[in-house]
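[step 3/7] fold_predict: job queued, chain A
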Amino acid sequence: ERLRDAAEMAEDVAAYDEFKRRLAAGEEELIPSEMVDRILAGENRVRVWREHRGMTVAALAEKAGITQPYLSQIETGKREGTLQTMKGIAEALKIGLDDLV
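[step 4/7] structure written:
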Protein backbone atom coordinates (compact mmCIF):
# COMPACT_ATOMS: atom_id res chain seq x y z
CA GLU A 1 0.00 0.00 0.00
CA ARG A 2 2.87 2.37 0.80
CA LEU A 3 4.46 1.59 -2.56
CA ARG A 4 1.20 2.34 -4.35
CA ASP A 5 0.81 5.61 -2.43
CA ALA A 6 4.39 6.57 -3.26
CA ALA A 7 3.82 5.76 -6.94
CA GLU A 8 0.65 7.89 -7.01
CA MET A 9 2.51 10.75 -5.33
CA ALA A 10 5.30 10.49 -7.90
CA GLU A 11 2.73 10.64 -10.73
CA ASP A 12 1.12 13.71 -9.15
CA VAL A 13 4.48 15.45 -8.78
CA ALA A 14 5.38 14.63 -12.39
CA ALA A 15 2.03 15.99 -13.63
CA TYR A 16 2.54 19.17 -11.59
CA ASP A 17 6.06 19.63 -12.90
CA GLU A 18 4.85 19.11 -16.49
CA PHE A 19 2.11 21.71 -16.00
CA LYS A 20 4.63 24.22 -14.61
CA ARG A 21 6.88 23.60 -17.61
CA ARG A 22 3.99 24.08 -20.04
CA LEU A 23 2.85 27.23 -18.22
CA ALA A 24 6.34 28.72 -18.40
CA ALA A 25 6.54 27.85 -22.10
CA GLY A 26 3.20 29.57 -22.78
CA GLU A 27 1.52 26.28 -23.68
CA GLU A 28 -0.90 26.52 -20.73
CA GLU A 29 -2.58 29.40 -18.98
CA LEU A 30 -4.29 30.03 -15.70
CA ILE A 31 -7.86 31.25 -15.97
CA PRO A 32 -9.75 33.30 -13.39
CA SER A 33 -12.21 31.53 -11.12
CA GLU A 34 -14.97 33.80 -12.43
CA MET A 35 -14.53 32.20 -15.84
CA VAL A 36 -14.72 28.73 -14.40
CA ASP A 37 -17.83 29.69 -12.43
CA ARG A 38 -19.52 31.00 -15.58
CA ILE A 39 -18.74 27.83 -17.52
CA LEU A 40 -19.90 25.62 -14.64
CA ALA A 41 -23.11 27.66 -14.45
CA GLY A 42 -23.82 26.68 -18.04
CA GLU A 43 -22.81 29.79 -19.94
CA ASN A 44 -21.66 29.28 -23.49
CA ARG A 45 -17.95 28.51 -23.53
CA VAL A 46 -17.35 30.42 -26.77
CA ARG A 47 -18.84 33.58 -25.27
CA VAL A 48 -16.97 33.19 -21.99
CA TRP A 49 -13.64 32.72 -23.77
CA ARG A 50 -14.36 35.53 -26.25
CA GLU A 51 -15.11 37.95 -23.45
CA HIS A 52 -12.07 36.77 -21.49
CA ARG A 53 -9.93 37.53 -24.53
CA GLY A 54 -11.56 40.97 -24.81
CA MET A 55 -12.82 40.29 -28.32
CA THR A 56 -16.01 41.51 -29.93
CA VAL A 57 -18.30 39.18 -31.84
CA ALA A 58 -17.17 40.91 -35.05
CA ALA A 59 -13.48 40.46 -34.28
CA LEU A 60 -13.81 36.79 -33.36
CA ALA A 61 -16.02 36.01 -36.34
CA GLU A 62 -13.57 37.63 -38.72
CA LYS A 63 -10.57 35.88 -37.19
CA ALA A 64 -12.38 32.52 -37.23
CA GLY A 65 -13.55 33.02 -40.82
CA ILE A 66 -17.27 32.88 -40.09
CA THR A 67 -20.12 35.39 -40.14
CA GLN A 68 -21.17 37.40 -37.11
CA PRO A 69 -24.74 36.03 -37.16
CA TYR A 70 -23.43 32.45 -37.20
CA LEU A 71 -21.15 33.16 -34.24
CA SER A 72 -24.02 34.81 -32.37
CA GLN A 73 -26.20 31.76 -32.99
CA ILE A 74 -23.46 29.50 -31.65
CA GLU A 75 -23.10 31.68 -28.55
CA THR A 76 -26.84 31.70 -27.89
CA GLY A 77 -27.18 27.97 -28.50
CA LYS A 78 -29.48 28.36 -31.48
CA ARG A 79 -26.97 26.51 -33.68
CA GLU A 80 -24.13 24.14 -33.09
CA GLY A 81 -20.90 24.87 -34.85
CA THR A 82 -19.43 22.25 -37.12
CA LEU A 83 -16.17 20.65 -36.09
CA GLN A 84 -14.32 22.81 -38.62
CA THR A 85 -16.03 25.96 -37.32
CA MET A 86 -15.24 25.13 -33.71
CA LYS A 87 -11.60 24.45 -34.65
CA GLY A 88 -11.44 27.88 -36.28
CA ILE A 89 -12.96 29.55 -33.23
CA ALA A 90 -10.55 27.73 -30.92
CA GLU A 91 -7.57 28.80 -33.04
CA ALA A 92 -8.80 32.39 -33.09
CA LEU A 93 -9.13 32.33 -29.30
CA LYS A 94 -5.73 30.62 -28.95
CA ILE A 95 -7.14 27.70 -27.00
CA GLY A 96 -7.54 24.00 -27.57
CA LEU A 97 -10.70 22.62 -29.11
CA ASP A 98 -11.32 20.68 -25.91
CA ASP A 99 -11.74 23.99 -24.07
CA LEU A 100 -14.82 24.74 -26.20
CA VAL A 101 -16.54 21.36 -26.36
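[step 5/7] annotate
The mean pLDDT is 96.
The longest helix spans residues 2-24.
exit 0
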